[in-house]
Amino acid sequence: MIGNVQTLDVQIPHEIVQYWGWFLAFGICLSLLGIFAVARSVTATIVSMLFFGWLLVLTLLWQIYSRCFSSLIQDRQYGHR
């Protein structure tokens, strides 16, 4: 039974092989950021709340902008005034 092991042939994309150093640096930075977030949990909470709050505000502004101007663009496309 043990000798009946299947091998999985996995092809690693060329971009990952080419830029492996960037992936390593990104992983190290995320690890350091996680350690900082655990060590300074109150600061990390405030920063994340501010970040996601502003992200919601910017998303709201984008939705309002796209809603107001999407009808003008569609009217011009189909020849309506």
Structural class: mainly alpha
Estimated helix fraction: over 70%
Number of H/I helices: 3
Number of strands: 0
- Provide the β-strand percentage band: under 5%
**SSE succession:** HHH
Radius of gyration from the CA trace?
24 Å
- Could you list the spans in which at least 5 consecutive residues all have pLDDT below 50? none
Number of domains: 1
Report the span from N to C terminus. 75 Å
Question: Which of globular, elongated, flat, extended, rod-shaped describes the shape?
Answer: flat
Largest sheet: none
* pLDDT averaged residue by residue: 87
How would you sum up this structure, described in words?
By secondary structure, the chain is mainly alpha-helical. Helices cover 77% and strands 0% of the residues. The chain contains three helices and no strands. Helix 2 crosses helix 3. The protein has one domain.
Strand and helix layout:
Blueprint: H1 14-18, H2 20-39, H3 41-77
Helix pairs in contact: 2-3
Any descriptors?
single chain, 81 residues, mainly alpha, 77% helix, flat
